[in-house]
């Protein structure tokens, strides 16, 4: 039983490090491509150009919400794996159910906050 817990802790750590590394490394090529953005590409690529503060804030918040949604999705998978591999252990099954519940609640909160933030910022712009 102890080895299963160590395996899950190790698995959590590996998934977290892999997700964090993937997200961090995905930003650098995207930032490099935005160095020479033509003036007519703002609408085509749906990015804020110029000194539009509301547009820049909207882009930053949307990127943050996407990253947090990915993390919540990873926790849905982790909770599902915990629940499926509980093998009759009530404590492990309960832990998996709680992880799934909190991840789904997090996704709902993220979705609602995205709607509220985008509505609020669009009313200013």
Written description of the protein model:
Helix content is 82%, strand content 0%. It has four helices and no strands. Helix 3 packs antiparallel against helix 4 (90-124). The termini are far apart. With 125 residues, the protein is mainly α.
What would the average pLDDT be, to the nearest integer?
Answer: 76
Cα-based radius of gyration, to the nearest Å = 19 Å
Number of strands: 0
SSE pattern, N- to C-terminal: HHHH
Give the low-confidence spans: none
Shape: elongated
What is the subunit organization of this protein?
A: single chain
| Strand content bin | under 5%
Largest β sheet strand count, sense and barrel closure: none
Helical content band: over 70%
| Structural class based on helices, strands and sheet pairing | mainly alpha
How far from one another are the termini? Answer: 56 Å
- Helical segment count: 4
Detail the topology: elements first, then pairings:
Layout: H1 2-33, H2 42-45, H3 53-84, H4 90-124
Helix pairs in contact: 1-3, 3-4
What keyword list fits this structure?
125 residues; single chain; mainly alpha; elongated; 4 helices; 0% strand
């Amino acid at each position: 039983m102890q080895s299963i817990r160590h395996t899950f802790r190790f698995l959590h750590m590996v998934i977290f490090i892999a997700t964090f590394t993937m997200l961090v490394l995905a930003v650098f090529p995207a930032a490099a491509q935005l160095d020479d953005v033509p003036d007519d590409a703002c609408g085509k690529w749906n990015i804020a150009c110029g000194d539009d503060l509301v547009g820049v804030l909207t882009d930053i918040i949307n990127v943050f919400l996407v990253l947090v949604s990915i993390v919540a999705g990873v926790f849905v998978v982790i909770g599902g794996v915990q629940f499926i591999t509980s093998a009759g252990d009530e404590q492990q099954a309960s832990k998996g159910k709680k992880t799934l519940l909190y991840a789904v609640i997090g996704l709902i909160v993220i979705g609602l906050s995205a709607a509220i933030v985008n509505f609020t910022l669009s009313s200013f712009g």
